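Hello everyone,

My group is preparing for a crystallization screen and wants a predicted model to guide construct design. The compound we'll soak is glutamine. Before spending weeks at the bench, it would help to have a computed complex in hand. I've included the protein sequence and the ligand's SMILES below. Output in structure-token form would be ideal because that's what our pipeline reads.
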Amino acid sequence: MKTFGIIVLPGSNCDSDCFYAVRDYLNQDAQYVWHEERNLDKYDVLMIPGGFSYGDYLRPGALARFSPAVDALVKEAEKGKLVVGICNGFQVLTELGLLPGALMRNKNLKFICKYVDVQVENAHTPFTSRLKMGQTIKLPVAHKDGNYYVDEDTLQQLKKNGQVVLRYSEDVNGSVDRIAAVTNRQGNVVGMMPHPERACDPLLGSSDGMYILGSMLDHLLKGGF
Ligand SMILES: NC(=O)CC[C@H](N)C(=O)O
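Reply:
Good plan to model first. Here are the tokens for the complex, ready for your pipeline.
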């Protein structure tokens, strides 16, 4: 049994989705981690869920860095622990500098909430090992600031290092190179705008999110990298 710590920031709203996906569909131990928590040692994986942490004030994700739990998460990430940031979690990870780039306002300046097709650009990561290169999966998005930006040099580095994990099949929000998910250079931290935790049951329109959660579990069960 692996323990997934789900960071609850003021304004998180996908923490319960993560909790139920991990507990009821992945059959693992899911635990909420209050944002004042300072020791995250006991968790095998840390998740930063979607939402509007700190009201999206300043910039989405920007204020989360002042929370003790996020501070502790950075230390765990640096030790090589798996960290996944979904939507607002992705925004937090870029604001922290754990992931390159930034998430800007969607190209159409609107909140976008729909299912999208994404293609697997790297199947050799702890988050995508149950998928095949080039495979298309269906996941929901729900954001107003999902327009991923990196400069040209960084984009070339990301591609060369296999850090681009998922790409939208069609342009959704204006993201550079249609990027939907990236990892850090070490490969233990991922940020993604689509929500795998909201796609764990065919009744909800897709269960493709289980590929992502299941890949993480496989990685933990085989003992890491
Ligand atoms: N679902 C979410 O996490 C929303 C993310 C973010 N606050 C946005 O609207 O861009």
